[in-house]
Each structure stands twice: as structure tokens, then as C-alpha cells.
């Protein structure tokens, strides 16, 4: 009798194992390859309003400087090495007129107010920018002029570049 129970138990176990192996759903596999390339993006939200000097002090050549910090920039980069932001203008400012820029940053080190009056080649304005995103960071401009420069009405395109 013990032998009979053993054989029946063994057959039941074999039957269960064979049925469970047949009950497996069909499967298929895929290998997904991926690449994340280097991404470096910079944008500004708008042009600043016209910087207009209207005041000065009698007997002083330097007129009262004016500033604006109503615009901002945003960057995104995933490079291993820190990046910098440079600024430059296409042609120098008129004699006696100067333009400074300051870019604020939470991911890098600002160079403070940088005189870009003659920056026809790129100058650093933010350095050591760590990988990630830095959104809506303030841009500040200061325009100064001497009375001896006369009256001037002009504009300059300021180019900001994200560089290694």
C-alpha cells in the first residue's frame, strides 16, 4: 500500500510539473541600444529696453550711468567638463561710451560686471558651469558715457555663447 501511494504521488507530481511547463506564455526579447549625445543650449528671454542716459552732474564729464536687469537667460548642458558663457559684440562702442554686462548664475561663477565695450572677441562672463540646467538667470547691463562723447543713438548685438 505504501508503494502504491508513493507511485501515485510521484505520478501526480510529474503531471503537475509537466503541465506547469506547458503553461508558460510565449516570450520574445529585444535589446535596446541608447546614446545620449552632448547637449549644450543657451537662450535669452527678450531684448532689454533701450538704455537711455538723461542725467549728469555739472562740471563732471561722466554722465549718470543707467542700467537694466529685466531680461534673463537659461542654459542646459550635460558635458562632463564645466562650461563657460562668453559675451562679445560685433563692433566696439563709440569712444566715451561703455557697456557692461553681468550674468548671474546658480551653477557657475559670475565674473561680475564685465566691460564689453571693446569685446569684439569673446570674454568670459560666467565660468565653471556644472552639468545640468540653470533657468531664468538675470542679465544686468550698465551703460555709461562721458559728456565729451556727444549725443549718440546706436545699438549693439551682444552674443552670448556656451563654450567648453
Largest sheet: number of strands, sense, barrel closure? 5 strands, antiparallel
Distance between the termini: 85 Å
Total beta-strand segments = 9
The overall pLDDT average reads: 92
Strand order of the largest sheet: 1-2-8-4-6
Oligomer: single chain
Brief summary of the model shown:
The chain has one helix and nine strands. The protein is mainly beta and 164 residues long.
Q: What would your notes on this structure say?
A:
The structure is a single chain. By secondary structure, the protein is mainly beta. It has one domain. It is 13% helix and 38% strand. It has one helix at 2-22; strands at residues 40-44, 66-77, 83-89, 97-103, 109-110, 114-115, 123-129, 132-145, 158-163. Strands 1-2-8-4-6 form a five-stranded antiparallel sheet, with no helix packed on it. The radius of gyration is 34 Å and the shape is rod-shaped.
Keywords:
164 residues, mainly beta, five-stranded antiparallel sheet, four-stranded antiparallel sheet, rod-shaped
Amino acid at each position: 500500500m505504501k508503494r502504491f501511494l508513493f507511485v501515485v504521488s510521484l505520478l501526480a507530481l510529474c503531471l503537475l510539473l509537466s503541465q506547469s511547463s506547458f503553461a508558460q506564455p510565449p516570450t520574445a526579447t529585444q535589446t535596446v541600444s541608447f546614446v545620449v549625445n552632448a547637449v549644450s543650449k543657451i537662450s535669452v528671454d527678450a531684448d532689454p529696453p533701450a538704455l537711455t542716459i538723461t542725467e549728469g552732474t555739472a562740471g563732471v564729464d561722466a554722465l549718470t550711468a543707467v542700467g537694466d536687469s529685466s531680461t534673463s537667460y537659461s542654459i542646459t548642458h550635460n558635458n562632463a567638463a564645466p562650461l563657460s558663457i562668453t559675451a562679445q559684440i560685433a563692433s566696439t562702442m563709440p569712444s566715451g561710451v561703455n557697456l557692461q554686462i553681468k550674468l548671474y548664475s546658480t551653477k557657475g561663477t559670475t565674473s561680475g560686471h564685465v566691460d564689453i565695450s571693446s569685446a569684439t572677441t569673446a570674454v568670459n562672463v560666467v565660468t565653471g558651469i556644472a552639468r545640468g540646467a540653470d533657468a531664468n538667470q538675470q542679465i544686468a547691463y550698465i551703460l555709461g558715457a562721458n559728456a565729451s562723447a556727444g549725443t549718440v543713438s546706436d545699438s549693439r548685438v551682444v552674443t552670448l555663447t556656451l563654450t567648453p
